[in-house]
Amino acid sequence: MTALLVGVSSYLCAGILSILFSRYRFWFGLIGWLGGLTGVSFGISSYLGSGPLVSTLGRWGILGIEIVIDETTLLFAGLVVLLNLFTLIYLRSSKKGVFYCLYNFLLATTFSLAFSHDLFNLYVTIEFMSLVSILLIGYERKAYQIYAGAKYLIISSLAMSLYLIGLGFVYRAGGNLGIGELTRSLEGTEEFSLSLGLGLMFAGLAVKGGVFLFSMWLPDAHSYSNTVVSALLSGMAVKSGLIGIIRVSEMLDRGQLLLVLGALTGISGAIFALMSNRPKKILAHSTISQVGYILLGIGTGTPVGILAASLHLFFHGLFKALLFLSVGAAGIGGSNIERAKDFSLPWTSKIGLLVGSVSIMAIPPFNKYFSKTLLVEQVNQEWVWFAMLAIGFGTVLYTLKLGWALIFEAQTDRAGENDLSIVAFAVAVGLSGFLAWVILGSAEVAHLLSPHHLITYLSIPLLGGLALLGLRKRLSSLSAPYFPFSLENSLVSLFTGFLVIELILFLN
Amino acid sequence: MSTGLLASAISIIIVCIGVLGLILKRNLLMKLLSLNIVNTATILFFVLIVYSPGDRAPIDPSPGLQYADPLPQALVLTSIVINFGVLALSLLFTMVLVKRYHTLDLIKIEGFVKREFEEEKS
Fold this sequence. Notes:
By secondary structure, chain A is mainly alpha-helical.
């Protein structure tokens, strides 16, 4: 409980103070970060002392709000704190006080979301988080940013209404809102209204979590906004919906549904990423594709599968934020990579891109290799295994397309003053593979690094590289269609996705 | 027919009307109105499901009475506030877009926005 209170209150204070005394905004941000770090350390010490813990906030017995401290909580809160540190150093004092206020509020809501274990609390934190992130998307007041923000606002508000109706159904069936209590009271109940409610809740969270068919707002919002905002949105705001899905699956396991959605999301995200030709668009579609892995991990339903999904969520947040910052620092986020020869990137951005690309391609000993291999290990159905291989292959293809153009074709420039923070971030991302060793233990890591695994998973990048050499000309001339992502069609696809969810729930 | 079932039926019908408006209307303001209908129907749903043990206000301490459930109403207050925030913010965004393009037609706005982005980045 101390962990949650310290972190959230320091972020909120930092936010309010940085709008009141905007001269010292950087230092207030730093104080907020220190508070967050203290919160996470409290959480880690509590976890090491007594293991995963669900406790109740307030003195009202089961009416109090449940909070939880487990691996998912700590990984997500740790991700928030790490991203906070590096984006803060990258920002220095370059924006106004209002930006720092919203930035700290975003961190406060995501931090508190990590701990929440109550369906309504999830709703409030997610809704507050999306309001703040919409303000951040439209911060520079450019028309395309405002439009992307409005699209996100309309779709997410509809989604949260769906979530709320679903919550009503689940509340009627279970008589409680805390997920721990609900797990006990819903044990063995199979009702029509419960299934409908669960479908509605999944649909609402999927819109927040970047699931294909639901999150068609995502590519625009993530690629049109300011660099730091894109990094934070892709790194942690999208994860809020996934944390919600993890918590709801704790309550009622609907593995098959998540497996189907995960495979669909991963593969279609990779296809769209391959067809896009602006760096930030590619990265935004790549976020959708990586969400697929996380859903597949949650869908396995085993504790190790959920741990692997949380680990993947953590690592993805780190390397995706690094890629967004590197691309944004060079100022080429919206340019077409067909003209990559005219770009000039600072060498710091190239290092960031290199580390990020190697991480996203899951090459050992970089971080994603461990989470992805652990995920593949957990799969017990053959078609899921093939889906994962397909996502991996697509990932390698679009990463090589992006990385080749930006690292090798573009010219190298001198670094500005701010850009050195990217090198620090790149080093941190490069070293974060060791965290897998800390979390999983040396025996598991040695198992993941055994020759059998190395050969199987290194062959995908090799094959991808060969395929890219053959297809380079074709790939660069592709362009992704825009129509699935317009507001009306994304509403229609949200509706279709909801029907798909209900269909799968009823068929099982 | 139980009150709960009737409640869910009525509010889900209203939600469907709102969603239809949201999908079919091209005017941005009409879209926001439809969104508000969906949000209000959600609130209606919560107001109606409280009558599950009984319909008495939970303030009379005498035993043997069937009380309405007070918790959903507390939840609804929060969601009303959030809906207000969403509506205010979306109207602000609409205002900015209308000031810039002098139209409420979404398809036109989408076209303008896309063209502007491509011009700026090339």
